Amino acid sequence: MLLDLAGRRRVLFFGGKGGVGKTSVAAAVGLAQARAGRKVLLVSTDPAHNLGHLWQRTIGPEVVGLADQLDGVEIDPEATTDEHLSAVRETLYSVMPQHLRGEVDRYLNLSRQSPGTHEAAVLERIAGVLQTGLPSYDLIVFDTAPSGHTSRLMALPEIMASWTEGLLRNRRRSEKLGAAVRGLTRDTNRSGLVEDTPHDPLVERDLRIRRILLARRERFEALRDTLRDEALTSFVVVLTAERLPVLESVELHGHLRAAGVHVGQLVVNRRSPADAGEFLMQRRELEEQFMEMLSGKLPGIPVTELPLLPGELVGADAVGRFADMMG
Ligand SMILES: Nc1ncnc2c1ncn2[C@@H]1O[C@H](COP(=O)(O)OP(=O)(O)O)[C@@H](O)[C@H]1O
Ligand SMILES: [Mg+2]
Predict the structure, then answer these.
(1) Rounded average pLDDT over 196-201
(2) Distances (CA, A) of 83 to 95, 111, 128, 211, 255
(3) Mean pLDDT for all residues in the chain
(4) What is the pLDDT of residue 132?
(5) Which ranges carry the ArsA/GET3 Anion-transporting ATPase-like domain (predicted)?
(6) What CA–CA distance (Å, rounded) separates 188 from 68?
(7) What is the spatial distance between Cα 273 and Cα 309, in angstroms, rounded to a whole number?
(8) Rounded to an integer, what distance in angstroms lies between the CA atom of residue 183 and that of residue 280?
(9) CA neighbor of 208 nearest in space, from 222, 216, 105
(10) Which residues, in sequence order, are bridge partners of residue 277?
(11) Separation between Cα atoms, residue 242 and residue 262, nearest integer Å
(12) Which of 63, 69, 101, 279 could form an SS bridge with 34, CB 3.0 to 4.6 Å?
């Protein structure tokens, strides 16, 4: 069932509470799809970086081959934030008068610490990965950070698009004001030499700022449209059959729906076996209560159950065996 969903989408996000199996399930689904003949890119946006640990190799910001038809890349929020802020610095330098560079640096140093900056940087990278990846991959699988981060991330394109819209509106207002002021000076000095032509550095600067803001708004709008396009994108919530993961999944589902993101599947990982002794039997019965709680709170979303495995899930072979269980 999970593979049916994956087979009909181009973009999949895996999210859920920390430690429930997001990375393992995302990798196994990616591998299963690659085996089915699709070209797949696996992307980790979790600072915990366990994609590399799972495949037992170093995976960084450059795409590496993990298996036939399967590539992987890790987005490091810290490094991404640095890159993002230096790109912003370059942009601001190019549009601000030279003597304000100190102000720009002060502002950016504060920005680094402020809430939302990491998410905005990661979001830019996600937008970039989708933009460059969709033409060359059949499927892009995102293994996301634990729930809180991810639900904020999914709501962000909308917020960023309207924030940029607000800035554009302010600029329109200040452009009018600027034009009026220039009109006034022209009137008062009566020289007739000050022309409002495109060579006016102020007009040129305004045009440049508008272009940057417009490009940014378009990028976020495109990302928002991709995230909300049910035919293209689906979100898979991974959990275990325990109280807190169930409650956290219900909350995550609410946030995703509010952001307009389609939740296509719930994956309940690490289900205890019913035929392996009294102890695990009792655990399984307890899990049944939480399975009921889940279907009561989130009715109508298909559920896939995956078994608790006896061994440690690391290395390509283990991912391969897990992929065999995806069904
Ligand atoms: N079905 C399973 N059976 C046994 N161990 C599992 C199973 N799924 C995941 N694990 C193990 O649980 C730990 C957390 O899994 P991981 O995929 O890293 O979770 P997350 O990405 O949600 O933090 C890892 O050590 C992984 O090997
Ligand atoms: Mg993980």
Answers:
(1) 62
(2) 19, 13, 13, 21, 29
(3) 87
(4) 93
(5) 10-326
(6) 73
(7) 9
(8) 82
(9) 216
(10) none
(11) 24
(12) 69
| CA–centroid distance, residue 10 to ligand 2 (Å) | 21
What pLDDT band is residue 286 in, cutting at 50, 70 and 90?
very high
For the record, the structure tokens of 52 come out as 């590399």
* CA of 52 relative to ligand 2 center, distance in Å: 10
Atom of ligand 1 nearest to the CA of 20: 22
Residues 6+ away with beta carbon under 8 Å from 249: 16, 17, 147, 237, 239, 266, 294, 298
The whole-number pLDDT of residue 187 equals 47
Per-residue pLDDT tens for 22-78?
999 999 999 999 999 999 999 998 877 789 999 999 998 899 999 999 999 999 888
In the chain, where are the structural domains located? 13-28+35-246+253-269+295-308
Q: Give every strand in the sheet of 64-67, ordered side by side.
A: 64-67, 70-74, 40-44, 139-143, 11-15, 233-240, 263-271, 303-307
Q: Which of these, 234, 260, 261, 239, lies nearest to 250 by C-alpha position?
A: 239
Give 155's pLDDT tier (boundaries 50, 70, 90): confident
- The tokens for 58 are 């170093």
Q: Kindly list the protein residues whose Cβ atom lies closer than 6 A to any atom of ligand 1.
A: 18-24, 50, 269-270, 306, 308-309, 312-313
Q: How far apart are CA 111 and CA 131, in angstroms?
A: 26
| Model pLDDT for residues 79-117, shown as the tens digit of each residue | 888 888 888 888 888 878 888 888 888 888 888 887 778
* Alpha carbon nearest to ligand 1 atom 23, residue: 19
DSSP assignment, residue 98?
G
The separation between CA 259 and the C-alpha centre of its own chain, rounded to angstroms, equals: 13
In 22-127, beta strands by DSSP E: 40-44, 64-67, 70-74
